[in-house]
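Researcher: I'm preparing a figure for a lab meeting and need a structural model of a single chain. I don't have an experimental structure, so a prediction will have to do for now. The sequence is pasted below. Please return the structure as tokens so I can convert it later.
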Amino acid sequence: MSRLFGVATACVAMLLAASVGAQTFVGGWTKGAQLRNSRSEVAVAAVGSTLFVIGGYAPAGPNPTALDASGQVDVDEPLVQAFDLQTGRWSDRAPLPRGLNHLGVTVLDGKIYAFGGFAQQNREPVADANLYDPAADAWTALPPLPGALGSIAVAALDGKIHLVGGRDVHSVATHLVFDPATKRYTSAAPLPIGRDHMGLVAYGGKLYAIAGRIDDFDHNTSYVDIYDPKTNRWTAGTPMPSQRSGMAVVLFRDRILAIGGERVGGTFTNNEAYDPRTNQWLSLTALPEGRHGTGAAVIDGVLYLPGGAPVNGGSQQSDTLFMFRQS
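Model: Understood. Here is the structure written out token by token.
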């Protein structure tokens, strides 16, 4: 039986994972300084003591739920804003070369690499690739992707940048490796099941691809796929207890946290943690409010989750900065 149709097996695995994850760890959420603009479907990264929020949707005017003439939110958003933990203040940084949402970003050697994205809400994927230098506050173009993709999952591992999944017209299983030294893309073993709105984290010399969707949030998944670059192979980990996409996924204290997400009828507050050392899921303190369409970054042991959407889809954005601490 193929993995995609092994529903009964996956359900049993999820129930086992949920029973393992019955414990709730000590810790909690607080709010920090509000963003200067309500935003969702942003990319999030941290360099040093600075948190960066890149691109995404923003309201078409002062009303945070306003739509433009076509009935869509204003998505042509090139904003890059930074939160300096030392001053506790937000500031504008050099904007993206053009407005995009659903970018894939990662940090390597103190610089932010941004790939792909959509030029319209969940459509019109692009092949853009750019490098941001925080010290110079400047963007530099990189060679474009071999094909246009939005909502790619991106992570740095051993000096290379892995770009996994994403969507053109449908979800893809593509796995590209970008070498910053040669500025070239090569192909690696594709995902077992193509998906987008997925998380990707590097830990212990491997990549962990977390959940995501197949084409839309009607088809959310709970898959955990583990990539070993030494063998160029993916293997399956214990599925996430919930089927989610559009989550913030980040490494926090040797666990991979999957926070929030969207589904039919709403958003998630779930905050579930995968331990790569035990292949088990644990439950952490839930978000105070449902969110999707954002990312997370960890600075000095504190997890930061900026903006995002409180409802599914793109009709609303938020200006909250949630912070998570765990003892």
